Amino acid sequence: MTQTATATDLAPLHPDAVRILPLGGLGEIGLNLMAIEARGEIVLIDCGLMFPEAYMFGIDLVVPDISALAGRTGDIRAILLTHGHEDHIGAIPFLLKELGNPPIYGTALTLGLLRTKLEEHSLTGKARLETVLPRQSIELGPFEVEFFRVAHSIVDGCGLALRTPAGLIVHTGDFKLDPTPVDGQTTDLGRLAAYGEEGVLLLMADSTNVERLGQTLSERTVGEALNNIVPRSSGMIFVATFSSNIHRIQQICDAAHAAGRSVLVSGRSMVGNIAIARQLGYLRVPDELFIDLRRMRELPREQVLVLTTGSQGEPLSSLTRIAMADHKQLELLPGDTVILSAKFIPGNERAITDLINHLCRRGAEVHYETTSEIHVSGHASQDELKTVHSLVKPHYFVPVHGEYRHLAHHARLARSMGMPSERVLVIENGQPLVLSPNGHRLEARVDTGRVFVDGKGVGDIGEMELRDRRHLANHGLVLVFMALNQSTGEIVTGPEIVTRGFVLEMDGQPLLDEALELVRDTLADHSREAVAGWEELRVEVRKTLHRFFNRTMDRRPLIIPFIMEL
């Protein structure tokens, strides 16, 4: 990983002060990682990843750059997990060793999902996982940490209350105030009110849905929609949703059972997460509801519901392969029904609409977010955020979990409720904030960023490599091969030009012949002394072809000259 400024460069803290240092999740959706320091010790809140954006060619995953913590890993007391979504736990297998392998605290399902990821990286026996319950407090050096229940789009979500030498800090985690959650576990407003009465130094609250007026719909709304769609659907039903949304899976299974349909589960993560949730008692489904492929083939299509992954149009997901008639066991026929019970995640819109088009071409009836109420958000809208602000009554407020526009909007909402502007602090990744009984200060920024995971490589692909990949994708590649006499500089073989993604070599041969003549002229213009190291010649060949292709075709391919010495 690239060396950057570290937390050791920051000034020592007063014993009654606390430092907030976001390393991911403030200014973006994903990569959630927050460091909180007091009296020389650090706790981390979450450690998540994000999926690659469109310009990140070939990148599999993105994790936070934690080089700002270099030299401080011995001071990290714990990682505190709010819930089990990828953007909050997904980076742990990649960063655990670099973080000094501190104990990890979370609720049962959160750690169950994390344990599966650790097994994939052969880290199960090395990680120290500590299960906590809502309203349970733990002592971590100068911190007393209490987990409190929040409703979200995943079971076992929690917020955190951290009592520090400077005062009480409340971090909501991802939440909404669902009055009728599927499992009856509402956000613990009683604890939030109690914190407010105790006195809260700092509130950090979820900003994802701050632009939405009113209140986020209850998860039970989805159940009502499913109970309407499933009984009247003909043919086989395919339902795609996130495998971590256990409440959604529960309602899908309930709707199938009520309609007399058996459920086939497809997709590795879906199978794994259902097994974990059932084992922990979070998913209550009778064994006989689930069937395997053999049993599915024996049943009429009208009695089968397939629960699968692929709601985001992922190329290798079960649903995409079904839509492309590329699945070996499952076939979509005219008259079948497909339900995409998930949000269109920004950046995935093109892939999802392509998927929907393919499904419609195959004669399926498709229900999705903009046509049916088969998805609701797991994040609080404006009225819910106002409720939390009113209960907690913080002295300072820092919006978290969102792009900068979300953070700025949440800050405006806090000011509209009467908070003084000087105590509403919008900070981004790498901006340390120090709070104490004497006030607050912003310290010099530390460098933060993103680390790319490509295959088994973590951090070995940087911005320069991504730039080259974008260049290749947009303009193609031109390779120039030649062999020169080491003593005289005369051409022994070549030059030859090979292109990829630039022009059809047969149709573009006149252009390439003209380019070869320019290369020969460039070689002739250089004396033996001028090309003694060959590097200057490579530069000249590259410049000559760049100018030529830009002038004749308005294209700027990546040009790589290969010079062999004979």
Question: How would you describe this structure in keywords?
Answer:
alpha/beta, Rossmann fold, Ubiquitin-like (UB roll), eight-stranded mixed beta sheet, 15 helices, 29% helix, globular
How would you describe this protein?
The protein is α/β, with parallel strands linked by helices. The chain folds into three domains: 7-214 and 378-458, Ribonuclease Z/Hydroxyacylglutathione hydrolase-like (Metallo-beta-lactamase, Chain A), CATH 3.60.15.10; 220-367, 3-Layer(aba) Sandwich (Rossmann fold); 476-565, Ubiquitin-like (UB roll) (Roll). The chain is built from 15 helices and 26 strands. The strands form five sheets. It has an eight-stranded mixed beta sheet with strand order 7-6-5-3-2-1-20-21. Strands 8-9-10-11-12-19 form a six-stranded mixed beta sheet. It has a six-stranded parallel beta sheet with strand order 15-14-16-13-17-18, sandwiched between helices. Strand 2 and strand 3 (41-45) form a beta hairpin. The longest helix has 19 residues, at 535-553. The radius of gyration is 28 Å and the shape is globular.
